[in-house]
Amino acid sequence: MTKIMVVGPVGVGKTSLILALKKGDTAARKTQAISFVGGAIDTPGEYAQITRLYSALLVAAMDASVVLMVKDASDPRVTLPPGFAQMFARPVIGVITKMDLPCADFCLAERLLMQAGVGLPIFMVSAKTGEGIDQLYQFLEERGCCV
Ligand SMILES: Nc1nc2c(ncn2[C@@H]2O[C@H](COP(=O)(O)OP(=O)(O)O)[C@@H](O)[C@H]2O)c(=O)[nH]1
Ligand SMILES: [Mg+2]
To answer: Is the pTM of the predicted complex or chain greater than 0.90?
Structure first.
């Protein structure tokens, strides 16, 4: 059981993050269903935004050893409900994406992830520039997760 599952609202950069960790250069397309990409489970953003779809996320998480909860650094909205991370019977690692954007607000994104129940460490990455990807990759590799 070495899979990672990536969750978070639509458009935060989940698929791009998986592709960056895989060191692929293909562009992300809209994720329509829970899908297996190498050692990762990619999930449609709607599953983190529509309460009645949470159960599907929880079932899929049974197949993963770690959940990556993704927050877009350029989006100041509260997009994950309080305690969302605690639903998962798995360690949840926070990942803040789009750190390359000028409007990226790391402090706010970190606070919102923590409100959603995510603990430290929280990783800051950009799938566009590659910032932070190696550190996250190494962290996952040390825990036996391969993407
Ligand atoms: N600037 C920037 N854009 C990103 C980054 N990651 C993803 N995007 C863009 O955000 C949009 C949604 O990305 P996607 O990976 O499909 O998000 P998902 O719905 O969470 O899987 C796409 O237009 C990506 O090119 C990033 O790190 N920086
Ligand atoms: Mg996607």
So the answer is: yes
Ligand closest to 74 (CA) is 1
- Three-class SS of 79-121: CCCCCHHHHCCCCEEEEEECCCCCCCCHHHHHHHHHHCCCEEE
Distance 90 CA to ligand 2 centre (A): 21
Domain boundaries, the chain: 4-142
100 CA from centroid of ligand 1 (Å):
11
Q: What pLDDT does residue 1 have?
A: 52
Q: Does domain 4-142 have CATH number 3.40.50.880?
A: no
Nearest Cα residue to 56 out of 72, 66, 45: 45
Residue 126 in contact with ligand 1 by CB distance below 6 A: yes
